[in-house]
Amino acid sequence: MTEKHQGSCLCGSVKFELSGDFQSFFLCHCTRCQKDTGSAHAANLFARGSTLTWLQGESDVNTYNYPNSLHAKSFCQKCGSALPTRAESIDSIVVPAGSLDSSVPMTPTAKIFVGSCASWSMNLSNIPSYDKLP
Ligand SMILES: [Zn+2]
Ligand SMILES: [Zn+2]
After folding, report:
1. Annotated domain spans of the chain
2. Where are the transmembrane segments (predicted)?
3. CATH architecture of 4-117
């Protein structure tokens, strides 16, 4: 049975539904993903042969394709939130885990491009953790 997954952007303008199953979930530490997320890594789920439907706000969705690469990022042009991207070369929809409102149905498959890890993100298991802003 094909699963359905729902998601949206931070400002709520864009809502989407994905019909299909995720095969993999990669935490990508490459330098492009550091730039495009502003963080240590991207967290993307891959759904081959799936169908992406924009339920609302499709006109607010913009896609940036990094020249001469497969790196692409879709985002809401009102709030900048990451949104799913069609990766035609691999017949897959790439879904940023944080864009999903429905539960993420799997744990990460692997970290990739770890040779490019930001130096500050290497040893995080020993830093203090708080439930709220301290
Ligand atoms: Zn938005
Ligand atoms: Zn990357």
Report:
1. 4-117
2. none
3. Beta Complex (2.170)
Q: In what order do the strands lie in the sheet with 51-56?
A: 4-8, 15-19, 51-56
Distance 25 CA to ligand 2 centre (A): 12
Please tell me the distance between residue 57's alpha carbon and the centre of ligand 2 in angstroms.
26
pLDDT digits (tens, 9 = 90+) for 86-108: 999 999 999 999 999 999 999 99
Q: Does the pLDDT of residue 2 top 90, yes or no?
A: no
The four Cα atoms 97, 103, 106, 107 give a dihedral, to 10 degrees, of 60
Ligand 1 centroid, distance to 58 Cα (angstroms): 11
Distance 8 CA to ligand 1 centre (A): 8
